[in-house]
Amino acid sequence: MMMSDLLLRLGILAAVAGLTLLGVRLVRVYVAAQRRQALAAPASAFGNVAPLPDDLPSAPVRILAFSSDVCRQCHTLQAPALRRLAAARPEAVAIRELDAPSHSALAERFRILTLPSTVLLDAAGHPLAINYGFANTEKLLAQVDGALAPASAFAR
Fold first, then answer.
1. Beta pairing class for 61-67 and 93-99
2. Which strand ranges, in their side-by-side order, compose the sheet holding 61-67?
């Protein structure tokens, strides 16, 4: 009886682990699909519902940093990472912090799922990358440097 009880427990444990892995995989697929749709949608698809902020500074790479007053990670992790990025690439990057609840149409346009989130835009306002959740300085630097790299560097 004791062996069958152990096998039952191991079977339940295996089933829970399998369902957990499946759930994580499904969430990752969903987030990737949301990112692809947000990056692929032309600005005209949104009409005047969610225009970019008028006060968005001009720069080769512009970043929309979505946060909220109650987002602890936004203030303790993402804001310092964005300050380090701005210090490292002062002429190349302009950052505009946005309160997601106050800019809900814009958050919807970029399919913001969680806070913090950052959207990298080119000088014309086309999205280049979207980071759902915290993006560290190294990741942001790599994305900015990739956006600034000449097109011929990608052709190799």
1. parallel
2. 93-99, 61-67, 117-122, 127-132
Low-confidence residues of the chain: pLDDT under 50 = 44-49, 152-156
**Burial readout 99-136 (b: 16 or more C-beta within 10 A, e: otherwise):** ebeebeebbebbbbbebbbbbbbeeeeebbbbbbebbe
Residue 22 to residue 34: CA distance in whole angstroms = 18
CB atoms within 10 A of CB 53: 12
Q: Do you know the residue count of the chain? A: 156
Helix, strand, coil distribution of the chain in percent, nearest 5: 55, 15, 30
Query: Mind listing the pLDDT tens digit for each residue in 5-36?
Result: 888 999 899 999 999 999 999 988 988 888 88
Locate 126 and state its tokens: 């086309």
